[in-house]
Amino acid sequence: MTQELIDLKKSILEGRYGDALAIVDELEGMSKRAILRQIKSFLRILLIHLIKNQVEKRLTNSWAASIRNAIREIKEVNLKDNQTSYYINSNEWEKFIEDQVIEDAIADASDEVMNGKFTRSQLSGMLDKSQILTTATSLLALTYNYSPKELPAIMDDYLSQLAGGEDWINR
């Protein structure tokens, strides 16, 4: 990105505004790709823990913290600088998860679920992917409706409804 900024400055100083605008467009594209990569990373963490929860039928403090953190970070990163629009809109999560993230999350989760007992393909066959997708999109929907201050308490209610959630909340 440093070279692009040098080129941008040079283009402006030389009055080549068309070139400068092309560089700005390139920088905007780079920024959006970086943000989507960051969202994808947090989303993968969310899905890994939802997969572990579904298969192991329990919820640990660590998993709950990871799910909460992933949702908080996605909320923060997904909101554009204008504070009124998003990189991924609420109706786009399902396709984004299916196209970009779920298979990576299953592969990573296969190393963790029941201490790596299942291969990726075995784990994939065991999962109710539609349930994981429903749970993930429900949690992600909270990011559009609640402030960062309200989100942890609301998430605790949702987490308590997961497998093992009642034991977790009443610990």
Structure, described:
This protein has one domain (2-169). The chain is 74% helix and 0% strand. The chain has eight helices and no strands. It has helices at 2-13, 17-56, 61-78, 93-110, 120-126, 129-145, 151-159, 165-169. Pfam families: DUF29. InterPro entries: DUF29.
Any chance you could write out the topology, listing elements then pairs?
Layout: H1 2-13, H2 17-56, H3 61-78, H4 93-110, H5 120-126, H6 129-145, H7 151-159, H8 165-169
Concise synopsis of the structure shown:
The protein is mainly alpha-helical and about 170 residues long. It has helices spanning about 1-15, 15-55, 60-80, 95-110, 120-125, 130-145, 150-160, 165-170.
Descriptive tags:
171 residues, mainly alpha, elongated
Percent of residues in helical segments? over 70%
Can you tell me the overall shape?
elongated
Distance between the termini: 49 Å
Order of helices and strands: HHHHHHHH
**Count of strand segments:** 0
Work out the radius of gyration: 20 Å
Number of contiguous helices: 8
InterPro entries: DUF29 (IPR002636)
Protein name: DUF29 domain-containing protein
Organism: Nostoc sphaeroides CCNUC1
Pfam family, one: DUF29
